[in-house]
Amino acid sequence: MLNQRRTKLEDLTDISIECIGLAKQHLEVIKSLTDVKLMYIHCYQLMKLGGLEAEVPRLVVFGQQSMGKTTLLDFIMGGPIGYSSTDTGTKQPVSIIMKPLTTLNTLKETLKENMKEGSKANLKEKYKGNEEILLNETNSIVCKFNGRFMTIHEVQDAMRVHMQSLGQTILSDELEVEVYVPNALYAIFVDLPGIKDDSKVGAELTRSVVRNYVSNNPNDLYILVKKASDDPSNWPWSLKEFITSSAPAGLGLTPQQTMVVGTRAKEFLLNEKTDIKTYEELVERVYKRGVVDSKGQMLPLHLLELFSLSIQAKESGDFLSNRDDMKAQISTSQKQIYDLLVNSFNSTNLGDEDRLKEELFNIFSIDSFLKTLNHKFQSLMTNQLNNLERRLVRKKIELERQIAAMDGKLSRFSPQSLRESIKQFIRQLIEVVHNMITGNYTIMKLPIAPEQFMKIYGGNLHDNLQDGHELALNLFPMPEMYDPEFYSKIMKRTEVLYKKKLTMMDCIKPGRYVRYFTSRVNSHMFGLIEPPSRTNNSNNGLDINFDLLNKDYGSDELINVEFIQINNGVETSLHKNIDRNKLVLLTPLPSVSIERLQVPLYAWHKTQASTGWVLVRPIIIDRLPPEILIQKSNYREVDIANKQISFRYLDESSVDNTNVNTSDNEYPVNQRGDSGAGLGAAAGASKDGKEPKDAKDNLGASKDKFKDKFKDKYGGNTTTGSSQTNPSSGSKEEKENVKYGDRYLYFTNCSEIYLEDKTSTPYFNSALEMVSGEHADSNLLNQLAFTNVSHWLKFHIKHMEPEQVYTSGVLYQMLRSIHHVVDRADWEPLVADLVQSNVRGTLLHAARLSACACAAALRRVLRASLSEVFRCIQINDLDHSLLGLSESLHFQEQIDQLSEEFCRQKALECSNDMRNLILEQTYSIQFDVAVDIFDSCNEFEKYFINTNKYRGHMQEFLNNVKENMAIRKRRLAMNDLFEKGDTKNSIELIYEEVKVQFWATKMLLSSPLTSKLYSHFIKNVLEKKQVLNEDPAIKLEAEFEEFLQSNILYEFVDGNLVPKNNAKLSNDYDLNVKFDRFIQKYNKTKRILEYVTYALEGITKFKHHAHSEEVVNFLSHLTL
After folding, report:
1. Structure confidence by residue, pLDDT tens digits, 12-47
2. CA dist 991 to 532, 963, 968, 995, Å?
3. Domains, the chain, ranges and CATH?
4. Contact criterion met (CB below 8 Å) for 853 and 468
5. How many angstroms from the chain centroid is the CA of residue 143?
6. For the whole prediction, is pTM greater than 0.70?
């Protein structure tokens, strides 16, 4: 398998001190040089020290086996070196660094000086065997492999052994060989293993090596070698895809960095001249042998005739003679190819003959190939040096910025007093927690979106209840302490109540009258629900009719309400979409069932303001006509619609309907004219809003009768018009009024009176929103999260009923005997026992779940606050001495665990306090407490509600409760337990009393239980402790702060709580080790900066010389 990809400059993380020293030496050499070709070698070795050799362009030769790859490489290097990768294996690329043989003279001089100093023994250890002889060679090739000098054949053998030792491992690292050649140029070549096709395993192996090298070295110049006669269209599909396709399936080479060389060009021409005779055909045949890239662009193509040495010449090792033989063969082959092109082909178009000849000569010419090679390599080198210099500059600036930041952090890892730093951290945490709960922490300024922050750390009521349930199961493992099924049961009960609420919303339908209070004019507007005005893109009449028929409102849809205004007999309407929570349904008095008609009756009177708007005013009816209370027939509504009824206005002293400031232009209105249906018309009125004349006469006669009856009943005087004008002056119907007590008594038709529909209920989007309000489904981290839990607890306390039911035998057994009385038993202790048994179940479970839910909400707040404190420390928004502490994983884990433990502890404490409160209340049952509750309500109504305007309810309720409780108590006391003649037996009476006492108990507990939640999870967490006679010099911490300090800064030794010293804390949180790691990272960064500085200086000088002189001039050493 392949190793990891080559390191990039941007990913450089470390470099050794030895490499820094060598890099400095290479830089000094580069600065002293004027030969750009030698600079090229030293810059390559300088970049290689950092693993960045791929940043310097090199010449790479690859292709199929036996295609002349080695021959081409020998030609480019200046002579037949004799190296071949065919027999050395296919596991690793081979990098050949070629230098002139004269560069060994420096090494020879060093040897002579060392021998004079008497260090010949050490030299023999360093240069063994024939290495010393090789250093004296002048005409042979000398190689250096693995630190040893050897011949080219010895290199072949050593490389073969190395490849075999790798087994099946494939390495992307290059195997480097230095080759010293007489009169050679300075250059770096890479020989990739020949691509095999003899077996599937061999093909995959060699292709893996080539593909991995090309992907890791995008800056090299690649030469693809193939036979001139090979047509790529006939290649196997796998080979064609590998060479021509884009990465990762293929190599992804482009014309800017690739050349194609076809060998055995003379053989190709000899074969082609037997089939074709024209230059046009030959050009077509040549380009068919070309290779295209993944985008269909032709790669530069050259067809060359090279050389071939005999076996004896190869084995002789005489480089100079073999080089002369090579040049002679290539020169002869070039002349033969020239003759073939001139004499064997002609042109059908004489005008294009010279152009075609020139094009073919460039393809088959050795000099043209070398010129193209020089140009491409020089262009690639220039572009890469410019790019590399820019990247080195960016890397240096980045490293300098890191060093500056690390210099600033250096002091932050060694605080003067670790104890003080921990105390400061805790204080910062308490401050963030306080701001988070109170809503003063500005989450809009965080680096992440506030919505994302709340999504990560916040939780809604359902989340807190779910987490609280899991915590309760952990804290109270016994079923009698907390029922494992309690959460699912109570959530099902909530859903049942929610569905019941939804079914009560079915009355929100078109055609119903509604009351809508607008604070803008301080009036209750009278409206009619219209069908939904849904948007329809289609203009088809059928679609419009279908929309009108669809009169049902969605659960979250706004209600379309029509309001009426009448000015000068012209009726206009306003349509407005209103939230259903702001609407109250009204039912006309004639349509109300007789059971609801009990005086005093509070209702609404439809009237008209001076501005013309139809509205309703609150009234009270003290007496109902006898005709209304008689159920006659199905036509009762029609029969009593015009019956007169007397009433009194409840808002008469504070609101004068004649001066209601309802603006005519408050909303845009639609002119309807007299033909519009009057929404305020009573039952039986005409469609244009006017009453018939006979109806008006009958109305006048009815008024006279009511005035006479009123005089007989109350002895009062009736007045008309002048004493008090009826506010509904705009209507056709005139109203009479009579002074009654401190209010006027008015008369109107029954059809003008409306009662509120008790079945109407506000809309809720979810069951939990019904329980806790509109923010129940929001992710929260402030006090509202705890308030939601309090509302949830109050809601379920309100709907709780006694669940424990026992058999009559159990109840009879628990009846207390009365001393010296045989046929009577005391039932009151039994009621107390039954109340306690019911409270111990549902109410205790609900209290424990609510406490654990608040603990879960607090845990979310602490988790978010810890994250913010750590973030602020990292960006240096908090004290600089906290960095080392905040980066300690042990400290992070400990304070997170302590936060969770604190929440668990608060859940237990709150649960125990709530349990004690519940038990205290049930152990001191007062049978008259229900009367006391209603008595308090009566006092509240008497002193805090202005009862002068209307007669209060609570006094009547209180009297009924007192009477009912006295009767029940008397019946229980006098009832014979063994008689069954009563409508209700003793057991039923006892259970009724249990329900009453359970209701009274839960009403008394509702507010104190929620107060416990506030005290434990908000007040005690945030506020500092208060004690009597507090000493101003003593600072008292909040409960959470004290909990953290006692568990972090102190430890128990022999049962005593003793403070930890700084050394102990540093050892616990690995601050010393962390400081050492920081110093290591700091030193690594400084070494990388030093290396990048050396590399930048060397590349900059090399680039300056490379722009004015060719880096590698292949023509200068290969002149034929």
Report:
1. 888 999 999 999 999 999 999 888 889 999 999 999
2. 49, 19, 12, 6
3. 1-51+391-413+1070-1120 (no CATH), 57-364 (3.40.50.300), 420-498+765-1022 (no CATH), 509-756 (no CATH)
4. yes
5. 60
6. no
